[in-house]
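Dear colleague,

Thank you for sharing your sequence with our group. We've completed the structure prediction you requested, and as agreed, I am returning the results in plain text so they can be pasted directly into your records. Please verify that the sequence below matches your submission; if there's any discrepancy, let me know and we will rerun it promptly.
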Amino acid sequence: MNATIKVDIRQLPHGEGLALPAYQSADAAGLDLLAAVPADTPLILAPGRYAAVPTGLSIALPSGYEAQVRPRSGLAAKHGVTVLNSPGTVDADYRGEISVLLINHGNEAFAVRRGERIAQLVIAAVVRAQLVEVGTLSATGRGSGGFGSTGR
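Please find the predicted structure tokens below.
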């Protein structure tokens, strides 16, 4: 089942000339986000360093939705570059520029060039929790077993 929602998008002046985010296949979950860095000045990420990369875009999500900024597997596999706060969350009431916090876990410096696909944007429905304070929680087979308690 493919559901569709309308999302207003605004291209900021430093993003002009770049393509809008797009799905790369019929069943892709994420829209590719492009780097809106100056064409003559790539952003260089040294090994172990991170930076907020501008996309030149802002969006207006409908209430009840969020946008998740997720890594691109190709950047991670080939260069060790990923989204530091993965997934990053864009709330429905945020109207500022979407930036992607990239980190270079690789051994070589990585140049982020204008128009390069740097992350994916996945639109998702939001479920809000109603927290109910109780004295005890129901018992389960796992109980309070933490990290590694269910196996390797």
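Summary note from our side: The chain has one domain: 8-125.

Kind regards,
the structure core
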